[in-house]
Amino acid sequence: MTTILVVYHSQGGKNRVMAEAVADGVRSIDDVRAVLKDAFHATLEDLVGCDGLIIGSPEYFGYMSGALKDFFDRTYEAARGNVFRKPYAVFVNAGNDGTGALRNIEKICIGYQFKKVYEPIVTTGEITPETLEACRVMGQTVAAGCNAGIY
């Protein structure tokens, strides 16, 4: 069975709602399971064991959340060489414009040697039905692509 790790952080709840919509999209694809984890609880085993990764973060002070950075810090050394070209996508809910958080997440993903397979979702303010639908489509697309072996 194909596994997609949805790793995110949320203090105010907006990124959790987005992460749940992504996971719902993943689960809509046959023979694919979503592992939905807060960044503080996600492990190296989750990262290495998944077939694809969808990363969600709020933007704090023009940067990703500290929890997500902690996940990357805890897994980087041991994951190197075990996650080459692992497909990934990113969603960000920002208080500003999201570019700082997105830029830094993508730099770290380059360091891991992940493969970006879907354009990021960056939203500001309240979560709209359109945002949630975009998150579901992101989850479906990454899940279907990983399950079909095209990524």
Can you lay out the helices and strands and say which pair or pack?
Layout: E1 2-8, H1 14-27, E2 32-38, H2 44-49, E3 52-59, H3 66-79, E4 87-94, H4 99-112, E5 115-116, E6 121-124, H5 129-148
Parallel strand pairs: 1-2, 1-3, 3-4, 4-5, 4-6
Report on the architecture of this protein.
The chain has a single domain, classed as Rossmann fold (3-Layer(aba) Sandwich), CATH 3.40.50. The radius of gyration is 14 Å and the shape is globular. Strands 1, 2, 3, 4, 5 and 6 form a 6-stranded parallel beta sheet that branches. Helix 1 (14-27) crosses helix 5 (129-148). The protein is 45% helix and 24% strand. It has helices at 14-27, 44-49, 66-79, 99-112, 129-148; strands at residues 2-8, 32-38, 52-59, 87-94, 115-116, 121-124. The relative contact order is 0.23. The longest helix has 20 residues, at 129-148. It has 5 helices and 6 strands. The protein is an alpha/beta fold and 151 residues long. The two termini are 16 Å apart.
Considering the chains and any ligands shown, give keywords for the structure.
151 residues; alpha/beta; Rossmann fold; six-stranded parallel sheet; 5 helices; 6 strands; 45% helix
Rounded to the nearest angstrom, the distance between the terminal CA atoms is: 16 Å
- Quickly name the level 1 CATH class: Alpha Beta
Give the number of helices: 5
Counting DSSP E segments of at least 2 residues, the number of strands comes to 6
Task: Provide a quick synopsis of the model.
By secondary structure, the protein is α/β, with parallel strands linked by helices. The protein is built from 5 helices and 6 strands. It has one domain: Rossmann fold (3-Layer(aba) Sandwich), CATH 3.40.50.360.
